[in-house]
Batch of 2 targets.
Target 1
Amino acid sequence: MTGVKVLPQAGPPGAESRPMVHAEQVHKSFGSIEVLKGIDLQVRAGEVCCLLGPSGSGKSTFLRCINHLEKINAGWIRVDGELIGYRERGGKLHEMREKEVAAQRRSIGMVFQRFNLFPHMTALDNVAEAPTLVRREKKSAARERAAALLERVGLGDKLGNYPGQLSGGQQQRVAIARALAMKPKLMLFDEPTSALDPELVGEVLDVMKDLARDGMTMIVVTHEIGFAREVGDSLVFMDGGVVVEQGNPREVIADPKHDRTKAFLAKVL
Amino acid sequence: MSLDTETPERARPEPIQAVPVRHPGRWLAVAVIGVLVAMFVHMLVTNKAFNWSFMIDEMFRPPIMAGLRGTIALTICSMLIGITLGIVIAIMRLSENPILRGVSWVYTWFFRAVPRLVLALLFGNLGILWSRIEFGLPFDRQIGALFGVQDFEARLFGFSAMDLLTGFVAGMLALGLSEAAYMAEIVRAGIQSVDEGQTEAAQALGLTRGQIMRRIVLPQAMRVIIPPTGNETIAMLKDTALVAFIPVSTELFFQLKAVGARTFQLFPMYVAACLWYLVLTSVLLVGQYYLERHFSKGVGRSGRAKVKLRGIVAETGGGASKADA
């Protein structure tokens, strides 16, 4: 199934030239420390892009810039053609109001390393909350859809459980269902398996593979080389706030061109 | 295997039958405390100044019961003002707007600096500032004078200060506004105790700041806010006694004091006040327990609240030991 889209250039039919995410010259500083030093990236619709790199390389920060959880200092990011966080009017950039930013985020799902489920709500309510509040869906309809989504991630029997009663892997699968409930066109994964016990990593990766197979556009910050090789359409290796190397994951992993990529892969493989 | 044949011989050893460590200190403490308690009870029974029958007669009289209702009403109203305004001030304090932050700081600074008794007396005498309290265009006379109109007035409605600022309302405002300053600090601590990841996750889902506060952050902050709020409510119940000096007549302590003054039996009435406040506070403690249990929903496994209750019971030396026996 994943073999169909071996090369990123191919992409799914009908979406050849449409970049879902297009970033240029993205710079980000925290105080005097520059974390991103000019990132260029294109991710096509339906593509699975894996971001690899040592910790501190800025990959999580970049991911958070894509849905404006972090404000960038220079450059620009477009998602589905739309500029993130700003509006262009009369050749000038205008900061978006908080409500407009919120509206942009609706179509971008995000999954966090530490799940960040709402601990005071059941799994079902975690998933149904945003559709009722933000998409103004009827409560009964939203809950029905939430139950179906939880069923899809293999948690049909855990609807009434609170996050504290679920294992890490189950919590992360609820978090994925919660993001999917907003019907996003892009999913961001910030090290989704790094906080999990090794035996629980597989169940989360399986759900993600399933999503990729369904044609979801995904950007995944990960240390799972196996996942990148198997599911990824493109691989981006970052270090020190810049993109060091990118290309087909199987080629990059098998034959890295850059010394830093070689050194990193030698350590994690 | 040979193990099988050996196991019967390696039977479970006899339970240890050791002489336990003696605690002579405990027995000494029991003796000393026993004597002190006996002395205290003896005094309660024999000292005529308590005048128990008079006290029991008086403490359920209609005016006292009206005072009791007044005290409860005052506690509830003041706490409602305090909690609502406290949440608003806490949110202002955490806002990105520097003016709102400043206003909330000044508010907290003022109302925490002035003693409640002073505030109560101040609010009780606000009638000295204005005979009437009116609403309309601010600075209407000055604006009128600017355009050459003498005695220009643009007021929509008004009340006589004496009607509006009755003792009860003045007391409620003094206690409620002062409480808001303390509640604001408690709510702020509660909001800040909620993991930032919660806000980020909600933001990523497209919730607005107001929705995040109402649906995600405040419900979780409640777990931290409720216990100190319970303490504040109990403190408020006791502080309502201060408004007896405004004076507010529909208040428990005022009524008990009045009976005491009229009959020259002040001491028994002060004891009655102790007993009434003990009863009211105990009722509040029960309510606090159930509230805390409600808001600890989803935290830890379900048994946690029960374990906590058992802990409280054990601490107070009640049921647990009986249940064991």
Note: Residues 198-213 of chain A form the longest helix (16 residues).
Target 2
Amino acid sequence: MTGPGGTDGAAGPVVVARGLRVGYGDVAVCGPVDLALAPGEVLAVVGPNGSGKSTVLKTVLGRLDALGGIVEVLERPVDERERAFRARVAGVGDDDAYFPGLSVREHLVLLARGHGVDQAGTVVDEVMAMFGITSRADAAPTELSSGQRRRLLLATAFVRPRDVLVLDEPEQRLDPGTRRLVADLIAAEAARGVAVLLATHDPEVAARTGARGLLVGEDACTDVARDDLAGVLAAVR
Amino acid sequence: MTSTAAPDVGTDADEQLTGRELRRLTARVATWHARRAGHGAGRLVTDVAYVVVSVVLAALLVGGTVTAVGGALTSEQAWTLGAVLGGDPDPWTGGARPLSPGLVLLLVLCVLLGLVASTAARLGPAGVGTAGVHWWLPTPADRHGLLVVSIGRATGGGVVAGAVGGAAAGLLAAAGPTGVLTGALVGAPAAVAVVALTGLAQHRGSRAAVVVGDALVACVPVLGLALVATGWHLPVPAPSPTVTALVVALAVLAVVLVVVWWTRVDRLRLPVLAARSSGSDRLGAALLSVDPRDLGRALDAGAHPRRPLHGRTFRAVRGPRGALVAADAVLLVRTSSSWTQLLGVVALLVLAHQVPVLAAGPGLALVVALAGMRAAGLGAGGARHAEMVPALDASLPLSARAVRAVRLVVPAATGALALVAGIVPVALATGSAGWLVLAALGGVGCGASAVRGALRPEPDWSGPLLATPMGALPVNAAAVARQGPDLLLLSLLPFTIAALLGAVTPVLVVVQALAAAAAVAIATRVPRRG
């Protein structure tokens, strides 16, 4: 296991893509993706709006079929139907939907119980406190503000087990303080050996998580060294 | 936030919930909340009783109507006011021979199975809803346990739709109790088999099943037309060992297909389930609302426009009006299911001329109204979408009134073209071009009614509830749902009079033009705020 942002390669990569083509229908949205992400690493997928960052993440999570190439998670081709995949890979996107009649806390407890989490209620309470939504525990998710709903979505990744964490622009709709703390949380996840793949536009998130980068382009996707990532993010448009 | 590290999460394999347990836990929590809110067992009993009474009353009403329509379909002569009054020396009263009952039964069963296939494909048929996709599917719970309920629901829906539709087909064919029973016994297993087949093909995506179902529905009138033209006659099959064997074989096939579907359902991948989840959610919400727009949107969910191979340059477009018309036209052109349905509407109109009771008089007026409403509705897809996303129209430098007028162009064109094409046999039979003019103007009115319906305000739930034998009716919401159909009746009134008289007069043409103009004026009127 490596430290935050570590790339010493002590463990083999848990997320691998080789010549991966992603898109909708049969139209690729970006160049072929090549990446390798080891436990304890943070990889930030960066690029302008519409470049295909979210599409790459959805394909890694099995929420979209790959158009071609290879994508493996935990040393197996991505198949989100496998129990082990769902038990070990956590993903947070931007879309949400809720069960009518269930409160914020109940949604999280349900998810934790579904994963067989010990002391599910206690874990959920701690994560809700961490994200500052304890006071809204009994509210319906639809009653939350946009930012609070974002916190709820992020909380779903932390009430369940995970070896791979995939986050699509986790900084979205968050106030600056919460954004910094989410970045620190991600760094802490990497420190405990979780492989984190995220899409981001935020130089501060990239810096605080110690991420290296992958710049998604129309014709090709290129690696970005950790030290160059802030500059690349600033230049992206 | 109080900490920068998430708590440690330990798991116990014995505590991991199965799909069934997860589903039941969710339902238990929701039920507990419902009870706390006063929706307990008593409320449940009342609701069930209400539904049972409503269903029985609806069945009686539909049964009576279908029987009357069935009797009329196989009658020899249409009723017209012209024939009664004797004003016109040669009023149009139709002239075709009636359809044979067996043919009616066969065609209606084909339509039923096409509708079942396309509806099942649009709604799943297997699925867990959008909330289930977000909160159940990411867990290690087995997918089979989560999806099995939707299999039961879809199979039950197939049984009911097939049995009721098959019985209705028998009634429509005026085939007597034997025909009704045969229709129900054939319809139920056939519909279940179609649902199961759609389920087995779900992993490939729903588009093919939707297109096949829509095409089948659209082709039935064409097929009927061909069979009538060739003088094909089909009696209703009498009870016999062959019919019994057919029903048993269909039932066995349906059971086998459902079992195979049940064993394979856990192979469905998340992208497929996510794509279908919103359709079923939307249908559930639509059934709770009085607004038929939501129902249309839910059932149209699988009919996405195709992705263009080459983007259009829109060189001919000049100004915001042209842009809106071009957008509506491109949507129509790229939605293949709309084209197949338009073709079916025209074929249905032409086929109606082969059915004496529908070839003239009130039958002709009714068929033209239904065909015009559907054809214009297919052209109003852009307006319906704009109602959901008002920012689209607001982004152009046009007044709300002008937007409504422009949004009317495509539905008026589809309505007019379908009615004119469909009324050609009457014009040829009577030698009067006046029918074509009436149909074109009536089609414009249908377009106006489609736009008025698409852009009607949201239902107002604040008004009182009116108790009816069919259930409580929110008065204000129902009043909003009336907008659109009201204009259809107004704009087709002159055509209806012509159909009743069996002749087109210059006065009726003028009145029809005035009715179309009035319909356009009403449809483009912007409601006051507040």
Note: Chain B touches chain A through 48 residues (CB under 8 Å).
